Amino acid sequence: MTDKPLLILIAGPYRSGTGGDPRAMAANLDRLESAAWPVFAAGHLPVIGEWVALPVLRSAGAGPTDALADQVLYPAAERLLARCDAVLRLPGASAGADQDVATARRRGLPVFHDISEIPRRAPQETR
């Protein structure tokens, strides 16, 4: 068990394998988000790069299939990883998620491949 909550980046396929199909990307985001509760329930704070990058893209008048996306999605994840304590890598082919794992390892951050690998925090009293 750990006493400090970890900020854990959930990494996995988002655009990969979708051919730009918005429904397929939404399904991938749903899959990423399905890991958020187990991370939170273990006492940590989950974060997904697209939660940061997609609003940035929208505010620039762009979306995940526009040319600007590569200039936002990968750098947003890189910047986010500068603040994260660990990565949870979900299954599936994804160059971006593989890049997140490589960055985490370079920075000496733990990379988990299953929720069961994440240390649980001791239950804290709520205010």
Can you name the CATH architecture?
A: 3-Layer(aba) Sandwich
| Assembly form of the protein | single chain
**CATH topology-level fold name:** Rossmann fold
Tally of helical runs: 5
Compile the SSE list and pairings.
Elements: E1 7-11, H1 22-34, H2 36-41, E2 45-47, H3 49-59, H4 69-81, E3 86-89, H5 95-106, E4 111-112
Parallel strand pairs: 1-2, 1-3, 3-4
What this model shows, in words?
This protein has 127 residues and is of the alpha/beta class. The chain has one domain (7-117): 3-Layer(aba) Sandwich (Rossmann fold). The protein is built from five helices and four strands, in the order βααβααβαβ. The chain has helices spanning 22-34, 36-41, 49-59, 69-81, 95-106, and strands spanning 7-11, 45-47, 86-89, 111-112. The chain has a four-stranded parallel beta sheet. It is globular. The two termini are 22 Å apart. The model has no long low-confidence stretch (mean pLDDT 94).
How would you summarize this macromolecular structure in one to three sentences?
Helices cover 43% and strands 11% of the residues. It is built from five helices and four strands, in the order βααβααβαβ.
Give structural attributes.
globular, 127 residues
